[in-house]
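User: Structure please.
Assistant: Input sequence and predicted structure:
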Amino acid sequence: MKIRLLHLYDDLLNLYGEYANLSAMERALSEQGLEVEADRKSLGDEVNFSEYDWITLGAGTEKALKRALSDLLPRKEGLSVSLAEGRFLLATGNSLSLFGEKITDGEGRVEPALGLFSYETKVSGSERRLSDEVCQSDLLEEPCVGFMNTAQSLYGVKTPLFRVRHGLGNSPGDGGEGFFEGSFFGTQLTGPVLIKNPHFASFFVKKLTEKAGIPYREPT
């Protein structure tokens, strides 16, 4: 069975080296003996999200995020269908804002986001939230570490991906970080999260090997 991976907007939403998340998955799945095909798609490219088993996108500038959102809005139904089919999506950094109800920018302007989930994003026009992070998830046996560097805060997150042990949450005073629902996973941690946390990559690999009907082999 071939496993297909996609880095969406690899040229726009790759501010902190998020390309390495795709590389980590490609290597880990290959080590399981699976045939892996990794694609990269950007603005205007034809893409059928249901053809992919695992999709990722990372952080970008405010301008890049707006361009990605404009490109994604007409594709909302296809993306929603792929998630309903159980195809995995990992959003890191500020790309998590794209999937909520709306985004309020630093000047108070409100722009609809994809509306796939019920949280919303507010962006500060003057302050950034920076911190080293240590987070725990019931989905993972080990904590995840990373770095947060963002001007945005998330509100209304009902199912955070992590509990913060050290660092910042989705918004000031919030002890939860990120969001997950079904096969969608998002974190405001930036950069190659799966390189820093190989057990998080293994979580996805286990899901995909199970889907492929082959036994998972612990990395040596």
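The chain has five helices and 14 strands.
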